Structure formats: structure tokens, C-alpha cells
Amino acid sequence: MTKDRALLFAVVGGIGSGKSFATAALRAFGFPCFDADAEARRLFDDPAILDVLRDRWGASVVAPDGIVDRRRLAEIVFAPTAEARTELDFLNRTTRPPLFARFRRWLDAVRASDAEFAVLDAPLLFEVGWESDVDFVIFVEASRATRVRRVAERGWSPEELDRREANQLPLDVKRARADFVLVNDADVENAVKNGKTNSNGKSEQVAAPAEPFSSKDATSPIARIVEEARRRRDARL
Q1: What is the span of the domain harbouring residue 28?
Q2: In terms of domains, do 119 and 65 share one?
Q3: Quick one: pLDDT at residue 1?
Q4: Residues 6 or more apart from 27 whose CB is under 8 A from it?
Q5: Residues 167 and 230 grouped into a single domain
Q6: Checking DSSP bridges between strand 180-183 and strand 136-141, what pairing results, if any?
Q7: How many domains does the structure of the chain reveal?
Q8: Are 200 and 174 spatial neighbours (Cβ–Cβ below 8 Å)?
Q9: Among the four residues 33, 52, 107, 216, which has the most C-beta atoms within 10 Å?
Q10: Are residues 65 and 181 in the same domain?
Q11: What is the pTM of this model?
């Protein structure tokens, strides 16, 4: 770990935990960001990938305007059927290699720049095996009740949330592998404050504020995480 290249934060957490909150806060510091979900959506603009999806699932997965019908695609790969896992695996084999190539090009460019930190917003960081490129992992934590309420705003049922998370690593595994835990629950007033660790002694836990904060606010949880990351970097030089 050196000062002569950008150090990479990765943001992970459960569905509806508020990962975008942490990512936006890090971006407010001016850190460049790779949004894996957004880049994955852009892959669907590739005619070659559209052809693969159409060949696999028929014309119903591509809207008349040539855009992937993501709702229809989700109905196929996250269906409560035994076949859905096979279909999800096919989608992953189709999209993950070109997505990783985009990530590596972005990371090479960032590390050739004078950026101090960069941000990887990749909910499936561990599942796709990208963690070897990451210096610090931030796990965004929220209770299931809070996450159920948040995903309801997307039109999802609790069962839909559970089906999608069943295809991911358990949250306690992700949490244990993180360097920092950012509590972003409905009741942050009762969240554990800065300075405590989880059972493996690795993750520093901080609580997100109820209101947005400025990147110049040194008391903010993200600011404390950034400062602690600098301290750890300097200690390893």
C-alpha cells in the first residue's frame, strides 16, 4: 500500500441498505467512482449482447425501441423456480467478463492519475471476485425491516428481496470481510458510534447521519472513514 497510486474503497451491503448513500458521500470528496450496476446497464446497449439475450429468451426481453426490458429479464432470472438459477448463471457469464474489462480499464486510468482515493460501487464485489483490487471495503448496514420498507418503494415484496439476496453471499459474511461498517438504518440515533469493532476485530463501525452532510464536515462518518484509511495507509508504508 503506497501513496503513489489511488487507494480503492469498495461499497457493499444488503439490498436496500443505502449503498448509494455511502457512494454519494465518497464522491462528494471528489473521488472518482466506478458504478458497476450503471456500467452493467450500459452493456445492454451493445448489439452483440442484445443478440445473445434475444437468442436465449426471445424477443420479449428486448423492447420495441431496442432497449432491454429489465423488468422482464428480472422476472426470468429471479423467478421462484428451479430453472431461474441456471438462467441467472447464463446472464452472469454473458455480462461479467465485459464488465470486468471496463472496470480494469477505469482502474488503470485512475491509478495512473494523481487521485488519492477512488470508489468502486459493486454490490456483488465478493461474488464476482473483484476484492483483490480493493484496499478498503465499506459494508453499509441496515436492519431487514428498514430494507424491506425501502425496497417496497421499488415495488418489491419482502419475498422478492429474499429471492434476490439468496443469490448473494450472506450479509454476515460480507460484514466480517469489511474494513468499515457504516450503519445506515432508520434509527441511526441508536446506532453504535465510531470506534467499536465486530467480532473479528477488523471493522470499524460508524453511524450515518439522518441528514446529508458536506464532504468538508470532519465529523461525518465518511470523513472519519477516509481519515482512518489514510492512517492505515501511512502505518503500512
Answers
A1: 7-32+113-236
A2: no
A3: 47
A4: 33, 119
A5: yes
A6: parallel
A7: 2
A8: no
A9: 107
A10: no
A11: 0.83
- Note whether 143 and 87 are same-domain residues: no
Residue ranges for the chain with pLDDT beneath 70: 1-4, 186-219, 237
Task: Identify whether 107 is part of a domain.
Answer: no
From the list 68, 72, 57, 8, the residue with the least C-alpha distance to 226 is 8
Same domain, yes or no, for 75 and 18?
A: no
DSSP per-residue string spanning the chain: --TTS-EEEEEEE-TTS-HHHHHHHHHTTT--EEEHHHHHHHHTT-HHHHHHHHHHH-GGGB-TTS-B-HHHHHHHHT-SSTTHHHHHHHHHHHHHHHHHHHHHHHHHHHHTTT-SEEEEE-TTHHHHT-GGG-SEEEEEE--HHHHHHHHHTTT--HHHHHHHHTTS--HHHHHHT-SEEEE--TTGGGS--TTEE-TTS--EEEE--SS---TT-TTSHHHHHHHHHHHHHHHH-
Q: Are 12 and 123 in contact (CB under 8 A)?
A: yes
The CATH number assigned to the domain holding 166 equals: 3.40.50.300
Clarify whether residues 227 and 189 are in a common domain: yes
* Tens digits of residue pLDDT in 38-87: 999 999 989 999 999 999 999 889 887 888 998 899 999 999 898 999 99
